[in-house]
Amino acid sequence: MTVVILIGSAVIVATMAVASGSFEMANRGLRRLEALFERRAWRGTSFAVLIAAVLWIQLVLSISIWSWALLYRYLGLFTDIEPALYFAIVSFTTVGYGDLVLDPEWRLLAGMTATNGLLIFGLFTAFLVDVVKVLRAS
After folding, report:
1. Which alpha helices (H) appear in 1-138, and where do they start and end?
2. How far, in Å, CA of 70 to CA of 40, rounded?
3. For labeling, which of 40, 61, 73, 135 is most exposed (least CB within 10 Å)?
4. CB atoms within 10 A of CB 69
5. Which CATH class is domain 2-137?
6. Could you read off the pLDDT of 10-37 as tens digits, one per residue?
7. 110: closest CA among 89, 90, 91?
């Protein structure tokens, strides 16, 4: 059980580091955009900015989900990448259908995947609120 917790914690720390770093990069871009809006130097649409933010978030979410799927595959919990990816998506989004389950000695990883998803979705919800705030102020 300790090994499972250590492995899961390592993936959570790694994916949160990637998410936090990308959040910081996107936040810097958002601040530049905010300055352009204040000077009226940018004539782009709010829709384009929102789509760019959503695509950025989707990229980071995909990296996180693939990290879990590759871990499941590496540990031999799934023989193919498709079920590993499916399980990672279902767990990460906390849907948890239950049609695929991990072996009892590894099932804590499913909960850790869900916890990771909750943390990252929370981070990017805050980011989207910032994006909308900047767009509404322009």
Report:
1. 2-39, 46-74, 81-92, 108-137
2. 45
3. 40
4. 23
5. mainly alpha
6. 999 999 999 989 988 888 887 777 677 6
7. 91
